[in-house]
Design goal:
Length: about 260
């Protein structure tokens, strides 16, 4: 079932106003329609790409009502009341964490194809990293998975150049390391192997900062040779082959939603 919305109302700050009475936030409706996370939908509004009754709206506090019409880039949106889809993708190296690329590099679309409507990735892996990426058509779920408030843990298998001692690894879970954007530390670590030339370790952390694992080891003089994300929250990479994906079961999606209080 689809609904249309249009003609914005200002956000009312009266104590007895509810979202049902006063309308629904525009960015929430865009997320429900499959246009990405709340943050991405806010950018669409700020960029002047969203119209209400033919009028461009750029105010994030805008609320709209069910009988009204929203258009994005000239197309009327349809609110997504279909079943939530979540895909677990095993991203190989040299694949961009994006749906398309002007430079012609391989992207996530090359793995999952075009069969899913308004699906997008929840977070990223850098170009030279590999492993688990979750994708969904549920904007609210994506927003919460990526929001630091929910502290979703991610586990990585890391191969390093150099000899990593248990003492150094322990420091990275207790004191942490100082980066340009502040102190960071791992939630859990396990040293798997350590020789004079190479070390392998499994680390878990909830920070979603860009290239955080590589930067933390680099701060102590270690170069990451291989980095594979093995787990996001309760969802594991498992036996998914590199460059392949699988659809999460209803039970897995329910567990994932509970993790972020949905």
């Amino acid at each position: 079932m689809s609904h249309s919305y249009s003609h914005a109302e200002k956000l009312h700050n009266t104590p007895h106003t509810t979202e049902h009475d006063d309308g629904t936030r525009l960015q929430k409706l865009l997320a429900m329609a499959g246009y990405g996370s709340r943050r991405k939908c806010e950018l669409l509004i700020q960029q002047g790409r969203v119209e209400l009754d033919g009028t461009i709206v750029t105010e994030l506090g805008t609320k709209v009502k069910p009988h009204q019409t929203i258009r994005v880039d000239g197309s009327t949106i349809k609110i997504n009341h279909t079943k939530t889809i979540v895909l677990a993708v095993n991203k190989p190296k040299k694949v961009l964490s994006a749906m398309d690329d002007k430079k012609g590099r391989w992207t996530l679309t090359d793995i999952i194809g075009n069969q899913y409507t308004h699906i997008f990735h929840m977070g990223r892996l850098d170009y030279d990293s590999e492993g688990l990426i979750l994708m969904t058509n549920d904007g609210e779920l994506a927003e919460r998975i990526m929001h630091p408030r929910y502290e979703i843990q991610k586990t990585y298998a890391v191969t390093l150049k150099g000899h990593l001692t248990p003492e150094t690894l322990h420091r990275m879970t207790t004191r942490g390391v100082c980066l340009d954007d502040g102190w960071q530390k791992f939630d859990k670590t396990t040293l798997l192997t350590s020789t004079r030339e190479y070390s392998t370790v499994r680390v878990t952390l909830h920070s979603g900062k860009n290239r955080i694992v590589r930067r933390m080891f680099a701060a102590l003089g270690f170069t990451v040779i291989k980095l594979v994300r093995m787990k996001i929250g309760p969802i594991s990479l498992g036996t998914i082959k590199s460059g392949s994906y699988r659809m999460l079961t209803n039970d897995e999606i329910t567990t994932l939603k509970k993790e972020v209080a949905l």
